[in-house]
Specification:
Oligomer: heterodimer
Bound molecules: adenosine-5'-diphosphate, magnesium ion
Radius of gyration of chain A: 23 Å
Number of helices of chain A: 13
CATH topology of the largest domain in chain A: Rossmann fold
Largest sheet of chain B: none
Order of helices and strands of chain B: HHHHHHHHHHH
Strand order of the largest sheet of chain A: 6-7-8-3-9-10
Helix content of chain A: 40-55%
CATH class of the largest domain in chain A: Alpha Beta
Number of domains of chain B: 1
Number of domains of chain A: 2
Radius of gyration of chain B: 18 Å
Shape of chain B: elongated
């Protein structure tokens, strides 16, 4: 029987006492398109760096493609391709030269390199731009080239750390398509991180939701959203809401739960499209002045909220202080 | 187990070559200081009598090998320190995540840095020739080339050793100003070290570049303070020592 693509046990990383990754257990199947979803500072990049041998874990262990990340580092490196969160190209070289450099580092001969470069450039639609210097690439083009490069030496597992960070919506869609295509056509196992829930939802077969260095939930996006079940109806009202008014709404048929936060009410409602009129009517009767009504099907954001008690955006601003130093370092890198 | 990846070494070397020929303005910039030293000191002191320079040797002939040594010192140290840029711009990760032994990476980088430094040394030889330096023949030239290689290996490796110990770019100008400049001035490149007070002379004897410049003078103009064999021996020793130190510290350094 084949070993799983990735198997981690109690993977832990401490930076000067600060617990960035806290005992992560993880198993990823061969051929899977797997996502790590979590806010900035959750520990996603640190997990990727440990799995790709760039950081030694403080505790715990992991196997990638059957090889131990501490004891069989070269075998691990041989099995993986990595697109790091921060750019890692030589901007004084052209796209083709960057790929050529990469191919030689992985021991590919001239003919193999030339064929494969043509193939991966085609995959990310960069054939035309192959001989342009990287410093003249746009951010999206640069990212696409890095993805092509990660794939070039036929890795068994491809790690993509925030592949669409900071890219516009259209470029993001393109990159999603490339990722799906190479997972299907090349059969490569893909492990990606993201803090965009639509991205995890759209792309991944299974998602691990990460907060403060721990996995808080892990399943397919559908099953995770089924945990929420009903749709979410959000009412913005004037002033604060009394217990009686909340009671009036939760008594309605089909309303499973009511959450109150200041002047915002979040209702979990079964088949909400048919029930909105009743809800609005009942709210007015109870004396609530409704400013707006929105309704959405459950998203991974709701799942994150359920498991952590906060929204992904809020979790990010809470982690902002810790992140400041790291981010200022990243900013200098981007130039 | 020590493994050497020839393809990877070649890849790293080739990258330095491509960058060297592409970034011409940078090369011109780094050649300007030694060129100005050569031109202005050469013309300025050309007819003056400098104490302790052997009879019959013009100042330009004395100076030119020293300026070649200066060029090699600056360009090779800079080449070794260039790992700082690779770390800053993230390219170091691309190198480090490859299934290649760390020793191969050091060899590839060093080969690239040494080649570009020696090319710059050869370029600065040209104005020296124009100003009156005369090379006795091919064997003399080849011997000088060996000295150039050893000087570049020593200082490229020292640059790499320093870069491996530094977290960011802030140490760069410190190294250039407080290590490289004194090494240059204390090497006998501009004037014979016997003109210095005794304690500075002693210090100069611990400077590998002293033997490099002396070796270049011995091979190019046939005048040297030490036997050439001694120069060669000491420089070979400093190359091996510096390279081992660089490889050791690089192996131990973190990407993150
Ligand atoms: N080299 C480091 N030294 C100290 N703290 C770090 C280092 N790298 C990451 N951290 C901290 O570890 C936490 C997780 O960071 P990271 O893995 O980059 O999160 P993510 O990728 O999910 O945004 C953050 O709080 C970050 O500040
Ligand atoms: Mg990250």
């Amino acid at each position: 029987m084949d070993a799983p693509a990735i198997a981690a046990r109690g993977l832990t990383m401490r930076f000067n006492g600060f617990l960035a990754v806290d005992g992560v257990d993880l198993e990823i199947e061969r051929g899977e398109l797997f996502g790590l979803l979590g806010p900035n500072g959750a520990g996603k990049s640190t997990i990727i760096k440990m799995l790709t041998t760039m950081l030694r874990p403080s505790a715990g262990s992991a196997r990638v493609w059957g090889y131990d990340i501490k004891r069989e580092r070269d075998a691990v490196r041989n099995s993986i391709g990595v697109v790091f969160q921060d750019p890692s190209v030589d901007s004084q070289l052209s796209g083709r030269e960057n790929l050529d450099f990469h191919g030689r580092m992985y021991g590919m001969d001239r003919k193999t390199r030339a064929d494969r470069i043509a193939e991966v450039l085609e995959l990310v639609d960069l054939t035309e731009k192959a001989d342009v210097l990287m410093e003249d690439y746009s951010g999206g083009m640069q990212r696409r080239l890095e993805i092509a490069r990660g794939l070039m030496h036929h890795p068994a597992v491809l790690f993509l750390d925030e592949p669409t960070l900071g890219l516009d919506a259209q470029t993001r869609r393109y990159i999603w398509r490339y990722i799906e295509r190479m997972n299907e056509e090349e059969g490569v196992t893909v492990v990606l991180t993201t803090h965009y829930m639509e991205e995890a939802d759209h792309l991944c077969e299974r998602v691990a939701i990460i907060d403060q260095g721990r996995i808080v939930a892990l399943d397919s996006p559908e099953r995770l959203k089924d945990l929420i079940g009903a749709d979410i109806v959000t009412l913005e009202v004037d002033d604060s809401v009394t217990d009686e008014q909340v009671g009036a709404l939760s008594d309605l048929e089909g309303v499973e739960a009511v959450d109150r936060a200041g002047s915002t009410l979040r209702l979990s409602v079964d088949r909400s499209e048919a029930r909105i009129p009743e809800i609005v009517l009942a709210a007015s009767r109870a004396g609530l002045l409704i400013r707006s009504v929105t309704m959405h099907e459950p998203t991974l954001e709701d799942v994150f909220l359920k498991f952590t008690g906060k929204k992904i955006r809020e979790a990010e601003s809470a982690g902002a202080g810790r992140m400041a130093a790291v981010q200022s370092r990243m900013r200098t890198r981007r130039h | 187990m020590i493994s050497i990846n020839i393809y990877a070494i070649y890849s790293l070397w080739l990258r330095e070559m491509i960058r060297f020929f592409r970034l011409k303005s940078r090369v011109v910039g780094s050649l300007a200081p030694p060129f100005f030293f050569l031109a202005f000191l050469g013309f300025g002191f050309g007819s003056a009598v400098m104490p302790a320079i052997p009879e019959g040797v013009g100042y330009v002939s004395f100076l030119a090998p020293g300026i070649i040594g200066m060029t090699l010192l600056f360009s090779s140290t800079f080449g070794g320190l260039s790992m700082l840029w690779d770390r800053e711009f993230g390219f170091l990760r691309e190198i480090m995540v490859a299934p290649v032994s760390r020793l191969s990476i050091v060899i590839g980088r060093t080969a690239g840095g040494v080649t570009t430094a020696v090319m710059q040394g050869l370029i600065i030889l040209v104005p020296g020739l124009a100003m009156g330096l005369q090379i006795p023949g091919l064997p003399a030239f080849l011997l000088a080339l060996v000295f150039m290689l050893l000087i570049a290996t020593t200082f490229n490796s020292l640059g790499l050793a320093f870069a491996s110990r530094m977290k960011d770019m802030s140490g760069f100008s410190l190294i250039m100003n407080f290590m490289v400049f004194p090494v240059f001035l204390l090497s006998g490149a501009l004037f014979p070290i016997s003109n210095l007070p005794g304690w500075l002379q002693t210090l100069a004897l611990f400077n590998p570049l002293t033997y490099g410049v002396d070796g270049l003078r011995g091979s190019l103009i046939g005048v040297s303070s030490f036997p050439l064999a001694l120069d060669l021996l000491i420089l070979a020793g400093s190359s091996v020592a510096a390279l081992s130190l660089g490889a050791y510290l690089f192996e131990k350094s973190d990407v993150e």
